[in-house]
Design a protein that fits this description.
Layout (H helix, E strand, L loop, with lengths): L1 E5 L4 H12 L4 E5 L8 E2 L8 H5 L2 E6 L13 H22 L3 E7 L16 E3 L10 H20 L3 E6 L10 H6 L2 H8 L7 H18 L1 E6 L10 H15 L3 H8 L9 E3 L2 H7 L7 H9 L7 H6 L18
Parallel strand pairs: 1-2, 1-4, 2-3, 4-5, 5-7, 6-9, 7-8
């Protein structure tokens, strides 16, 4: 069956295209930008473009989106056009074509303000049951698109899986304070404890979701590297996160010290991806244990796929105050 991948010039889209092509799968990539992984150039916001893109398609993996870094450079209507109307166009065409699976890439940013507990409160324990409180147009537009996904699953029988992915981009953090205190690799290693996932594991989750969508019918799952933390660790994580990490991984102190790395002094949220592992049979490989094992061997902890896709950025402009403009 032909698999349609939207956003094929982006981080995840390219990664999906690479893996599917290498596996000899029949795959079609679409994007507004030409690339080595884009078969058809066009926008999902154009309803007239969708039938051409959907020809003979049996599964859709919808990764195209405007992201958080676009909040400062794009208006609300741009997010509505791409993230909401574009998703609706695809859902409508997929339902009419009777596709076997529609996988929608969403984001843990959809949880919004629920991710930041009050000072001195325990770290937020984020499961799929936590209510979304979007705090910008990016989160709002993704939650709205999720709503249309569920509507098409419930009302039109379209098999839909929503994957709320945590961070997987390789670029430096958008927080200037984080960039000033931690080198990028150090930051991203730390994040694999609670709020990051390697792109190879993201791809495997999407492909499993496409395979399982018909059996599941409708589902929403968090996709993030499995955390080593327990729910009872939440208060200590907020007050003194390194003490928890060193208790769980005594070898971490020396491995980090060799590189001049530091752990985050406090962790404010922990993503729980247990449901994705249980319902989809997802088996992520790139967790914090893998990080420490890689450091001990002097190896890069990123997957080969992450290195192959590399940096892409989100804008054609270089900004003086960091990798992204300030909203």
């Amino acid at each position: 069956m032909t698999i349609l991948v939207t956003g094929s010039a982006g981080h995840l889209g390219e990664a999906l295209m690479r893996v599917l092509r290498e596996a000899g799968r029949d795959v079609r990539g679409i994007d507004i930008k030409p690339s080595d992984f884009t078969d058809i150039v066009g926008t999902i916001a154009d309803r007239a473009f969708i039938p051409c893109a959907m020809k003979d398609v049996r599964a859709v993996i919808h990764a195209a989106t405007l992201h958080k870094p676009h909040v400062a450079t794009h208006g609300y209507s741009d997010f509505v056009e791409t993230n909401i109307a574009g998703t609706l166009n695809l859902l409508d065409a997929a339902a009419k074509a009777g596709v076997d699976a529609f996988v929608f890439t969403s984001t843990t940013s959809a949880f919004g303000s629920a991710l930041t507990p009050p000072p001195d409160a325990p770290a937020a324990w984020i499961t799929e049951d936590v209510a979304s409180i979007p705090r910008n147009i990016y989160g709002t537009s993704k939650v709205a698109a999720e709503g249309f996904c569920e509507l098409f699953a419930r009302r039109h029988g379209l098999p839909v899986i929503i994957l709320r992915t945590s961070r997987f981009f390789p670029e430096a953090d958008d927080d200037a304070e984080i960039r000033s205190r931690f080198e990028t690799a150090n930051t991203q290693a730390n994040e694999l404890l609670h709020r990051r996932v390697d792109i190879e594991d993201v791809v495997s989750a999407h492909l499993l979701a496409a395979d399982r969508a018909k059996a599941v019918g409708f589902g929403l799952f968090i996709v993030s590297a499995p955390t080593p933390f327990a729910r009872d660790d939440r208060l200590e994580l907020r007050r003194d996160a390194p003490s928890v990490v060193h208790r769980l991984y005594p070898e971490c102190h020396a491995l980090y010290a060799e590189r001049g790395w530091q752990l985050f002094p406090s962790i404010d949220r922990v993503y729980i991806s247990t449901r994705a592992t249980e319902a989809l049979g997802w088996k992520p490989k790139y967790d914090f244990r893998h990080v420490l094992s890689s450091l001990a061997r002097g190896k890069d902890f990123q997957s080969p796929l992450a290195r192959a896709v590399g940096l892409k950025g989100y804008h054609d402009t270089v900004f003086a105050d960091g990798p992204y403009p300030i909203a």
